[in-house]
Amino acid sequence: MVGSPQPWQVGEEGLLLLAGHAKGQIPLQVINCIPFGPLELRLLGVAAELHFVKEMALSSRLLSYACPLSAAGNQLPSPPCALAGLRALLTLCSGRVPAVTLGISAVEYTVGIEINFADSSLQNSLRSYFKNLSFPLLLNVSDSSVKMSSINVTTVCDSTGANSTHCYCEHGYEWPAEACALQPTCPKASAAEESCNCIAQLPPKGTYCQLHSEDASSVYIIEMSVRLDLPFQDDLWNSSSTLFKKYKHDLEKVFFAGYSSLPGFRNVTVTGFRPGSIVVPYTVIAARDIPVERANSKIAADLKDTYNLIDNSFRREIPDGVNFSVSPERIFKGDTVKMTCESKSTSSNASWDFSGHLISTGTRHSIMNDITDGKSVSTLTITSIQLSETGNYTCAFMEWGTNLTLIYKAVENIAVSQLHIMPSENVSVVCNGESKELRCCTDAEIELTSSWKTNGALNISGSPTSINNYCTTYVLQANESQCPADKSGAKTDYTCELNSTYGARNYSVIGVTYFRLAKVNITSIPDGKVSEGHSFSVSCISDVSNYNEVTWQIQTGSSIKNVDKVWYTTSKSNRGAVSVLTVGNANQNWAGTYICTFYQSFLNSSAHLEMDIVPLPQQQDIRRDPIDTSVSCPMNRDLKCCTHRKENYTVVFYDLQRPQSVLAERRLEGRLNCYYHNLQITEDHCNSVGHSVQMFCEFSNQINDSIKSSPLILNLVSVKNIRCDSSDLGVGENGALITMPCSQSNETATSVRGNITYKCDNAKWITVNNSCLIVPVNELLNSAEELVFSPESVQNLPTYLESLDTTIKKEQQNITNSVANLKAVVEILNMVSIIPVDANQTTMEHFLSTVDTIMTSPTETWKEFKNGSSQLLDSVERFSESLQPLNDTIPLVRYDNIQLEGAVIGKNNGSDYHKSFVFPKSANLSGSVLIDEAKINRTGTSFSTIISVAYSSFGHIDPQNNKRPGFVINGLVLTTVVSPSDRLNDDFQINMTFAKSEKSLKNPKCVFWKFNLSADGGGWVDAGCESREDAHQVTCSCNHLTSFSVLMSASHEDSVALTYLTYIGLGVSILSLVVCIGIELAVWKSVTKTRISYMRHVCILNISISLLIADIWFLVVAVMDDKNYQVDQRICTAATFFIHYFYLCVFFWMLTLGLMLFYHLVFILHNTSKTVMKAVSICLGYVCPLAISLVTMASTLPQGTYTKKKVCLLNWEDSRALLALVIPALVIVAINAIVTIIVMAKISRRSIGEKSMSEEHTLLYRIAKCIGVLTPLLGLTWGFGFATVIPESPTIFHILFTIFNSFQGLFILLCGAFWDRKVREALLNKCSFSRWSSQHTKSTSQGMSAPMLSISSPFSRTLNNLFGKAGKYQVSSTESASSSPENTSKTYSLMT
């Protein structure tokens, strides 16, 4: 019996099970084609013929298939027929299976077939037939994808007798353990524990031989490869590409079909593709070693046409067929390495590759192949192997065959490592004979040799030692002679090199720095002793220039002070280094032993010097009594100078005029050390009554240094002039001032600064000024002076600022209302602002909190503090420059009146500087600062520190606003500073925005604070800035840094236009006045024949002359101010005087003209001589202005308050001298306005009876003419000045005021000359002599017939009443031509 069907599951679609029985009646064979239902297969054996009968009961149908006997008569069906039956069976099963599509694995079936035959000799024929079949066999079905891949014989049963049968398993198969246990085994075959190969009877139904149990669980991997004669495509590298998937699928299908016929085969997998043409490596997985060469020819045939598989290109790698050895065992870079392969193969065809790359003989690689003792040996030698040659090395021996080439291969991973050297650390050697050991070790336990080399400024050799415990040492020893001073700190490299036996070598460098102990000398100037308040310097000289750091210390007893770096500078030279400590104002903190130390890494060298600070009081510490007083003459007066120092000084008093000095007497008064001198006021002094005596006290210490006090002033007063007499304060005449020192407080050991000024007033001394500091502020000021000149000023500054902030807040009320205390606090801020300080949040807050507190002081207090706001700005700006960033940051500080922000801008961060400020308590007043980072040129550092400070209420503490009249600060004040080491680029620009605090103000000016603008302090300047304005803010662009703000005009926005209008008007007025004066002189005789006309033209002429001179001076001063010309003060005083005087003359001559008009209107019958009128007019027009001008100048010039600070005009801010012009002008304008009203009232008085319409028109014309003539002549246009001083006044008033008053000369020409009919006639007569006689006669007759102020004139109808009562007097309207001109034409053409 042949056939032993073994059921196993071959796919998801089904399980094929075959069972059979081979004896007697042919039983029904049932095969289940899962899931297609039952299938019956019946095999019938007949003596005469053997045929297959296949019956299938499917849907009540029976299908059968029969095979005739073969022609040979051997009772065996013909193999084609048998296969046809098998095909029919598989077709039936597979016909129910879905069609196979690409990408879906085909369904595979294993069919068990049992063949019964009587002649057992037919087994060999059947075996041979099955072996020679070419697989796969195509089944005769419509679906060509159904193929038979292999036929294997598993079980053979032979009948040995009537009742004896042996059933044995073919190679690779065995009976199950159950079958062996239940069935007798064949002779010479013992039952194994679990299975056996032969049993002595037929097994139970469904029992057949199975694969070996070890094959079922074991995995045998066979590495194969084959070549395809196709071009390699890049997509075959990519396992996810479509081409790769297609090739892999197609090839695996063919491989599987070919190898599945081999017993033990399980699977095959294509692992990838590689070039040449296309090499296909694949892995065959089997239960044991299988003869793959049996299937290669079939696979080659299947792939020949589709994939051009190259014949005889099958390769199989034989593992464990090569012995691979390497020398040396540990491989280091540079070694010569030998790799040897011994193969079981006798082939000498060996090859080597490294990580997939074929190795060939070259400069560093050599390959030798040989056969020794029947074994192939191949040796690869690599000279000076490199780290990059670490990896897998493969040696392969090739045995060529027809269907398969065997490759005996061995792979070894070669690790190439660096010969690691572990050197000792870099060392420093002091050239004083000490020894140092250098060491180089390795972790490679191999035989090594070593060597040492030196390279550096100092080639000092050492002593090497042999290698011990894989280490080599080198001992160095240097003395001072081997280390020159200029080479101290020089570094020498010592190189140790280790070499292995096989050629590897490596080295390491150990750095050795040689130091020589520096020789340091220290000296001082002056030598060893210096007085307090004097300067001194200490120099420390080292012969070694290569130092890392220099420090200075002062030791006093057991206390050591570290001197801040701000006090000393250090420089290097070829001969060494010099560090110089310089102190400009010595105090007791500098006394002690000076230690200067030069550090060279760990080595330091020092020198010592004793410095004695000899006490000597400072001038401000000397308390004088009296300071400035009055004494009667003759008398004796005690003078004293005191100090809080208890040292015994030599003190003398002397008078500069009498240089002989007098030794003072020492007395201790409480905490004060006082020196007295009794001054005798002799007759010699008395002869100089009205003068003063200035005495000085001079303190000398033990080293003969001296300090002279400020003067003690004694004003000599005769006894008869004494009005005040006090035992405490002394005597004095009425109005005398004396100055006394402040009272000494028991709360402090030092003198309280300041003084008290008393005034003798009505026989009593009254206090007029007290500049004494309160004790806490006095202590702070003394501490600040000590701190600034302290060795530890930088270290102690944070503590002092904390104390300052606390004290100022506590004493705020006393400070903000006292100019002296406010000055002291600002002085303190100025002093400490120059000390460098870290940008610590707390320290900054203390400083700025103090500033915020004093900024709340009343405006009146700040006004009395001359240049105080400028000093405060300067102190904050310097403090900002002194800040040193911490961790590259500047903390944010915000208070109600001041805010600070900053940033550190680096080279690589590329960010601009942009900061914004908002003050919520100041109506959200805001501003911002923007600086392009590229506009700052950093020098020496990689970053820039930029700090901005904003002030919200600077305007109320800045009295300097008055230096720019009409402008006020209308926003924040912004201060921006950069690192002192940084420079601004030429195209630097800072952009700032200022929110307007008063949006109604106009004409913005971007200004900066110039600290040295004038002798009395700083001020706002607009140079280098441009402004842009919108409704709510002003943008300023400036090309420099300092404190900026926006000034805006509180008056009007057309100031520039009005300025040009003023210049034009003044120019026109000057020309008009010149013309007017020329006309008056030309027609003088013709128009001054009557007393009234004479006086009228006298007034007009003097008004013109005075206004001409005044306008010329004013124009010159205005031009100089606009051009910022510097003018000598004497010239400025003269210009101011002439402007004041001549404008007063203009007004007073206008007053004269107005009074004359009033006189002739009211007092018609009163005749005053021309001489009297001229005298009164001259006195009123020139003398009164002169008196006012001289008095004004005399009262203000001595105090320096006559003129403005920068403009040659009368001062307003300090002395109100401008009132000497304003008040007379306003009074005169008011008087002339009254006169004009009277004139209009006289013209408009109604006569008896109703007036006709024409008379009404004539009256209105005369009134209008009267106003037009009198307004410029009487100066009424100056009345517009009242409107211009009113805040928010309309612009029209400013324009009218400018037009009427700058063009006043033109109006005088028109109204005073051209409008006068007589003047016009006179000019015409001058121009045309032929018409002169008739015109003159006509004019005379008209003038004599109806003078304006005659009784018949409306002006003279009411002589006794100013406002229109009926007249009572009759005056002839005609007079003889020979009558006196005094009695004719009283006011002729006064207003014509």
UniProtKB/TrEMBL annotation:
Places the protein is found: Cell membrane
Single GO MF descriptor: G protein-coupled receptor activity
Transmembrane portions of the chain: 1060-1087, 1099-1120, 1140-1163, 1175-1197, 1217-1239, 1259-1280, 1292-1315
GO process terms (BP): adenylate cyclase-activating G protein-coupled receptor signaling pathway; cell surface receptor signaling pathway; energy reserve metabolic process; fat cell differentiation; regulation of lipid metabolic process
Coiled-coil positions: none
Annotated family: Belongs to the G-protein coupled receptor 2 family. Adhesion G-protein coupled receptor (ADGR) subfamily.
Name of protein: Adhesion G protein-coupled receptor F5
Lineage: Eukaryota, Metazoa, Chordata, Craniata, Vertebrata
